[in-house]
């Protein structure tokens, strides 16, 4: 089959990890008889430098016409002093909004081979960890009204968190549907002791839960959830939460899988078009040094094959290759531990390709 993929290398380590991921996809194409056509487009700092704006219309148009989008990362110190709506990060919000990608799946899976890279004690991890964070992606404080004004103490700034019944209902359904295919447990994370938007969130989640009687539901305040993730992460199966809480908790969850360089994501909407990207950023501290872990991006490509293209075997093939290379003790710096073999971005990519 033929698939059109828009690629957005972006900034920092973005181009390095996308390069390896495209090579992996090409090898999958060869092996299984598919053609992946890649169209590289600009977003983020790279787009600001080339066109003056973080998300050119051409990029939006090409992404909309593609079967899926593969993104590296955007942002970096070079663009940190630009006003909010002209920063590289605005491109991500623009794409998520324009493409209607309201559901962000962030699976935190600890590979057996990486137990030593997990900072938690072996008795806490047990036989492994497998948590799915379902993050709402096109609402909440990221998309609410914001600005500056004159207040009681002079100049002030504000951001607002808004959630509609509709927005909570559709993300809750994604969470419960996911739980039905997993261990049938949902933890809805909010701050309902303080926020009105969280109280609405909680009541809508309860209503949706009635359609999934087999799924066990509990509610947890976000501060407690942050603590429970390191105290007893095995209590979680699916976590559903708002845009900002999901952003924060998924970085925390990534660390218990060994490194943020391991965590992939899928951003999905109503149709099959999705955007796939690692959860980490452009890592300016290691950019251009062949040090970045490409696995989160390569695993994001596996999610693309599964969710947008319905190529289950091919997705499994990538995931198994990653497991194999980890079991052969190859490690990038971020997941390195005693006795392991240190490799760079390109070599890690090559090892995974050879293992496909
Ligand atoms: P970051 O995720 O880029 O980096 C945090 C730390 O993790 C750094 O020490 C970095 O070296 C390390 N790290 C991240 N990815 C890694 C990988 N694949 N392999 C090895 N180590 C890795 O977060 P930050 O430093 O807070 O942000 C840097 C820039 O990235 C900012 O401009 C931020 O806005 C942007 N950002 C973009 C995205 C995205 O494009 N999706 C996500 C998060 C942050
Ligand atoms: C992520 C990033 C983005 C977010 C930023 C860069 C806009 O941190 O994808 O997790 O907060 O969603
Ligand atoms: Mn983030």
TrEMBL record:
<feature type="binding site">
    <location>
        <position position="223"/>
    </location>
    <ligand>
        <name>substrate</name>
    </ligand>
</feature>
<dbReference type="InterPro" id="IPR019818">
    <property type="entry name" value="IsoCit/isopropylmalate_DH_CS"/>
</dbReference>
<feature type="binding site">
    <location>
        <position position="251"/>
    </location>
    <ligand>
        <name>Mg(2+)</name>
    </ligand>
</feature>
<keyword id="KW-0028">Amino-acid biosynthesis</keyword>
<keyword id="KW-0460">Magnesium</keyword>
<feature type="binding site">
    <location>
        <position position="106"/>
    </location>
    <ligand>
        <name>substrate</name>
    </ligand>
</feature>
<keyword id="KW-0520">NAD</keyword>
<dbReference type="InterPro" id="IPR004429">
    <property type="entry name" value="Isopropylmalate_DH"/>
</dbReference>
<comment type="function">
    <text>Catalyzes the oxidation of 3-carboxy-2-hydroxy-4-methylpentanoate (3-isopropylmalate) to 3-carboxy-4-methyl-2-oxopentanoate. The product decarboxylates to 4-methyl-2 oxopentanoate.</text>
</comment>
<comment type="similarity">
    <text>Belongs to the isocitrate and isopropylmalate dehydrogenases family. LeuB type 1 subfamily.</text>
</comment>
<comment type="pathway">
    <text>Amino-acid biosynthesis; L-leucine biosynthesis; L-leucine from 3-methyl-2-oxobutanoate: step 3/4.</text>
</comment>
<protein>
    <recommendedName>
        <fullName>3-isopropylmalate dehydrogenase</fullName>
        <ecNumber>1.1.1.85</ecNumber>
    </recommendedName>
</protein>
<dbReference type="GO" id="GO:0003862">
    <property type="term" value="F:3-isopropylmalate dehydrogenase activity"/>
</dbReference>
<feature type="binding site">
    <location>
        <position position="96"/>
    </location>
    <ligand>
        <name>substrate</name>
    </ligand>
</feature>
<feature type="binding site">
    <location>
        <position position="223"/>
    </location>
    <ligand>
        <name>Mg(2+)</name>
    </ligand>
</feature>
<dbReference type="InterPro" id="IPR024084">
    <property type="entry name" value="IsoPropMal-DH-like_dom"/>
</dbReference>
<keyword id="KW-0479">Metal-binding</keyword>
<feature type="site" description="Important for catalysis">
    <location>
        <position position="142"/>
    </location>
</feature>
<comment type="subunit">
    <text>Homodimer.</text>
</comment>
<feature type="site" description="Important for catalysis">
    <location>
        <position position="191"/>
    </location>
</feature>
<feature type="binding site">
    <location>
        <begin position="76"/>
        <end position="89"/>
    </location>
    <ligand>
        <name>NAD(+)</name>
    </ligand>
</feature>
<keyword id="KW-0432">Leucine biosynthesis</keyword>
<feature type="binding site">
    <location>
        <position position="135"/>
    </location>
    <ligand>
        <name>substrate</name>
    </ligand>
</feature>
<keyword id="KW-0560">Oxidoreductase</keyword>
<feature type="binding site">
    <location>
        <begin position="281"/>
        <end position="293"/>
    </location>
    <ligand>
        <name>NAD(+)</name>
    </ligand>
</feature>
<dbReference type="Pfam" id="PF00180">
    <property type="entry name" value="Iso_dh"/>
</dbReference>
<keyword id="KW-0464">Manganese</keyword>
<keyword id="KW-0100">Branched-chain amino acid biosynthesis</keyword>
<keyword id="KW-0963">Cytoplasm</keyword>
<feature type="domain" description="Isopropylmalate dehydrogenase-like">
    <location>
        <begin position="4"/>
        <end position="352"/>
    </location>
</feature>
<feature type="binding site">
    <location>
        <position position="247"/>
    </location>
    <ligand>
        <name>Mg(2+)</name>
    </ligand>
</feature>
């Amino acid at each position: 089959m033929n698939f059109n993929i828009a690629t957005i290398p972006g900034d920092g380590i973005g181009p390095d990890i996308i390069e390896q991921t495209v090579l992996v996809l090409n090898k999958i194409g060869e092996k299984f008889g598919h053609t992946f056509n890649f169209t590289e487009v600009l977003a983020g700092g790279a787009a600001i430098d080339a066109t003056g704006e973080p998300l050119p219309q051409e990029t939006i148009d090409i992404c909309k016409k593609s079967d899926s989008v593969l993104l590296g990362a955007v942002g970096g110190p070079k663009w940190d002093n630009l006003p909010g709506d002209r920063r590289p990060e605005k491109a991500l919000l623009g794409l998520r909004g324009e493409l209607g990608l309201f559901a962000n799946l962030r699976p935190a899976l600890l590979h057996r081979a990486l137990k030593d890279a997990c900072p938690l004690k072996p008795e806490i991890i047990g036989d492994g960890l497998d948590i799915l964070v379902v993050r709402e992606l096109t609402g909440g404080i990221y998309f609410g009204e914001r600005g500056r004004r004159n207040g009681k103490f002079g100049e002030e700034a504000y951001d607002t968190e808004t959630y509609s019944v509709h927005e909570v209902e559709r993300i809750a359904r994604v969470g419960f549907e996911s739980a039905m295919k997993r261990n049938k447990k949902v933890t809805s994370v909010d701050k309902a002791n303080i926020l009105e938007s969280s109280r609405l969130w909680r009541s809508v989640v309860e209503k949706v839960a009635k359609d999934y009687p087999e799924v066990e539901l509990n509610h947890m305040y976000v501060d407690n959830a942050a603590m429970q993730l390191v105290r007893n992460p095995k209590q979680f199966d699916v976590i559903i939460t708002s845009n900002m809480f999901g952003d924060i908790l998924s970085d925390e969850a990534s660390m218990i899988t060994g490194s943020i360089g391991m965590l992939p994501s899928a951003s999905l909407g109503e149709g099959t078009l999705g955007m796939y990207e690692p959860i980490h950023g452009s890592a300016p501290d290691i950019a251009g040094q062949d040090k970045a872990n490409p696995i989160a991006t390569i695993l994001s490509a596996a999610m693309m094959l599964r969710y947008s293209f319905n190529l289950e075997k091919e997705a499994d093939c990538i995931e198994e290759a990653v497991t194999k290379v980890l079991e052969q003790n190859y490690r990038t710096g971020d997941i390195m531990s005693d006795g392991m073999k240190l490799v760079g971005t390109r070599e890690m990519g090559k090892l995974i390709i050879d293992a496909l």
